[in-house]
Specification:
single chain, Fructose-1,6-Bisphosphatase, Chain A, domain 1, D-Maltodextrin-Binding Protein, domain 2, 5-stranded mixed sheet, 8 helices, about 30% helix, globular, metal ion binding, Inositol monophosphatase family protein, Inositol_monoP_superfamily, metal-binding
């Protein structure tokens, strides 16, 4: 992701807090849980894992010793990329082209190639490049299968940890050392009990900074720096809430299916599912999601945008 701080207007609107009944809250959140009933074939699910395997071969082989880093950012913006980023994405795109030439794909490093099929692939070869070049273990590869632009299958692969989180919107599981275990979000419903995560608190500025500060004060504890892995741990039940701004489609596509498949909620900052501005909230339960939206809406009007870091 680009290192571009989230900036918003300075005006406040403290009248945005909404009173919701319990029934309205649950009805509204239902759309964030299982928005599609599309069944992914075993063939496509296995192929997605094949893509993750191919990316692992590249990224793990390169994650030793000193890693050469280029800056693809403009001006003073530091946006790191490594040869492993490019090689892993190339490997996945090549496999897609060979197995499913009619499928489109879009990746962080090489952009989009349109296909003739309703299916397409969203690829982020190394989500958390900063962690990767620093020798930290929580970087991931993100792979999503989309049908008509909607995520129907997601993989959050953590090669250094040998953990692979898979979700199809209806179920989610973790594969490690040849063992597959079902994932379930924590069930936390109150901010006061929640474990919050975001990639970097310094990404938030202006009203977004106020909004995140309000959440940080309201929750039990906050952890930073886990990029896409934080969403994997939300699906596993050890993190309850993740809030970020201005993610790109390749950053969030895979996360949607994994979080929702584990029973969590994946929505935007306004209580909906419009991710065009990249503002996302992942929460363990509908109640926790709505509580987070309420805090954010006290500081941030629904129309603002922002930037992000990965």
């Amino acid at each position: 992701m680009l290192d571009d701080r989230c900036r918003f207007g300075m005006g406040r609107n403290r009248t945005l807090r909404r009173a919701r009944s319990t029934s309205l809250l649950l009805d509204r959140a239902a759309a964030h849980l299982h928005p599609t009933s599309v069944m992914v074939t075993p063939e496509l699910s296995n192929f997605a894992s094949h893509l993750a395997d191919a990316a692992r071969l590249v990224t793990l082989a390169s994650a030793t010793g000193m890693i050469a880093v280029e800056n693809k950012g403009a001006a003073r913006l530091f946006d790191p990329v490594t040869e492993a980023d490019r090689a892993a994405e190339n490997a996945m795109q090549r496999l897609i082209g060979e197995a499913y030439p009619e499928h489109g794909f879009a990746g962080e490093e090489f952009g989009e190639q349109l296909g003739s099929s309703p299916y397409s692939w969203s690829l982020d070869p190394i989500d958390g490049t900063r962690s990767y070049v620093c020798g930290l273990p929580t970087w991931t590869t993100l792979i999503a299968l989309l049908e008509n632009g909607q995520p129907v299958l997601g993989i959050i692969d953590a090669p250094r940890l040998d953990e692979r989180y898979v979700g199809d919107g209806a179920a989610a599981w973790c594969e490690r050392a040849g063992i597959s275990a079902a994932l379930q979000s924590s069930g936390c419903t109150e901010l006061e009990q929640a474990r919050l995560s975001t990639t970097d608190p310094f990404l938030f500025a202006g009203q977004a900074e106020d909004a995140f500060a309000g959440l940080r004060r309201a929750v039990r504890m906050t952890r930073y720096g886990h990029d896409g892995y934080a969403y994997a741990r939300l699906a596993a039940g050890t993190i309850d809430l993740v809030v970020e701004c201005a993610l790109k489609p390749h950053d969030y596509h895979a996360l949607v299916a994994v979080v929702r498949g584990a029973g969590g909620v994946f929505g935007d900052w306004s209580g909906g599912t419009d991710f065009a501005a990249g503002r996302v909230i992942a929460a363990a339960t509908p109640q926790l999601y709505e509580a987070a939206v309420d805090v954010i809406q006290m500081a941030v009007p629904p129309s603002v945008g922002g930037g992000a870091l990965r």
